[in-house]
DNA sequence: ATTTAATGGTGTAATTTCGACACCTTATAT
DNA sequence: ATATAAGGTGTCGAAATTACACCATTAAAT
């Protein structure tokens, strides 16, 4: 049985591609839709912008309502405006991304009923998503893959204290290629924005690695703008 | 006397930052507005997206109507969605840029009455623009400045046949720094996508320079993606 | 015919960066 | 004590980058 739904005119919406890194894998946040169209499908967290909020504010609000996550540093990356991208009417959507630390984050959980659930899903094995969300994801993934090379975004995905091996495996996951351990360490340390801590990794059944911290102040001092972080 | 104007609800618009290069200077296309608000102000070419056209199509149409230019390769670069950015209501605008050859282009001239005139203006000396168009311009300028380093966009701004000095002065104008002549030539030629022609510059009162052409095919063969074009 | 003015066009050497490559060390579990 | 698993480290050749200065060519002016 098909449900007949009202159509509407011009609407702005926001869709979010939220990246996280866990167990050596890059993941994104998906929701299970609880509304037509595409009820029960998996989708990117997204919803409609209100009249009296900026799109940046809307992005924060919508992500919170659908996942319970707050205060992420979201960044707009592309606007999708094909006429038929939404079956019910003209919806132009501004896509945002954010990078977050999965560990230490409480469980993600929708606050509204528009979504049944929210969860992390590896980027390597994504199902078909609602609307044009697969395309939105691909565009966003390409953006951060490139940005990884000239902006220090990796550190937003790692815990505050991390090992060089973790950092390297994050680069390898995003760029999808193996990097040389010695060259990677040499280069990363040469920038001078990694602060070596007096602490070591805990709870591993092998030699514990030194922990490092990203020193945002030093980074800002060294580079006004940006740099080539890898090869 | 103040004119009272109707307000409206959610509206999408497009604004265009069209770059050109002439007489060693980088320029953009401005229009003189013929409508409230900001009647008589200078502004970026821009207007409202129709219900039944994609934003990419709208960008092409609007640019044509306001400047008479057609078939440019326009690219979206950012969406501006502050609540108060338009005095009459909620207008979210998607900004596009394009790079074009000014020479050989017929004079730019609006086709509709929304604009009184359209003309090229050097980027170094821009007046205050209507709405948030100064901010839109700055964002766009930063984008192409970065893109110049890894994509062959310079050739869209130059005539089809150009000298190495012209190419260099374009890079200098966009990056706003002096480059070394010998190193610049060495590097550009080393890529292998510049085709040396059997022709020379004409009409100059000094030694004529060799002309070159950008070989798009070779470029595509050599680089699947992109590269660092300068230092 | 000669000179002047303006830009065209070219090479080398020192330095830095990149990339390939392998082994010993340390901590834990058994 | 031994096995296991990852941590951590240096060198050398190749390639890329940077700094740097002078002669050549053309047209215009004299």
Automatic annotation (TrEMBL), chains A, B:
Residue ranges of every copy of the Nudix hydrolase domain listed in the record: 9-143
**Can you tell which superkingdom this protein's organism belongs to?**
Bacteria
What are the boundaries of the signal sequence?
none
InterPro entries according to UniProt: NUDIX_hydrolase-like_dom_sf, NUDIX_hydrolase_dom, WH-like_DNA-bd_sf, WH_DNA-bd_sf, WHD_NrtR
Kindly give the Gene3D superfamilies that the UniProt entry links to this protein. Nucleoside Triphosphate Pyrophosphohydrolase (3.90.79.10), Winged helix-like DNA-binding domain superfamily/Winged helix DNA-binding domain (1.10.10.10)
Can you name this protein?
Answer: NUDIX domain-containing protein
């Amino acid at each position: 049985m098909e449900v007949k739904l009202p159509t509407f005119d011009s609407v702005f919406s926001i869709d979010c591609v939220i990246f996280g890194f866990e167990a050596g894998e890059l993941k994104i946040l998906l929701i299970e839709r609880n509304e037509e169209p595409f009820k029960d499908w998996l989708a990117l967290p997204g919803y409609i912008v209100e009249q009296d909020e900026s799109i940046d504010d809307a992005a924060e609000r919508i992500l919170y309502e659908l996942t319970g996550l707050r205060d992420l540093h979201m960044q707009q990356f592309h606007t999708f405006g094909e006429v038929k991208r939404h079956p019910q009417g003209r919806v132009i959507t501004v896509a945002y991304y954010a990078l977050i630390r999965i560990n230490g984050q409480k469980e993600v959980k929708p606050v509204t009923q528009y979504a049944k659930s929210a969860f992390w899903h590896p980027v390597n094995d994504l199902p078909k998503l609602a609307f044009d969300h697969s395309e939105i994801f691909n565009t966003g993934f390409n953006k951060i893959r490139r940005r990884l090379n000239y902006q220090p975004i990796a550190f937003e995905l790692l815990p505050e204290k991390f090992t060089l091996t973790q950092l390297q495996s994050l680069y390898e996951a995003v760029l999808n290629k193996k990097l040389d351990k010695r060259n990677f360490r040499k280069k990363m340390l040469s920038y001078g924005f990694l602060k070596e801590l007096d602490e070591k990794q805990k709870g591993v059944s092998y030699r514990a690695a030194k922990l490092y911290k990203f020193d945002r102040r030093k980074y800002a001092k060294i580079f006004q703008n940006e740099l080539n972080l890898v090869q």
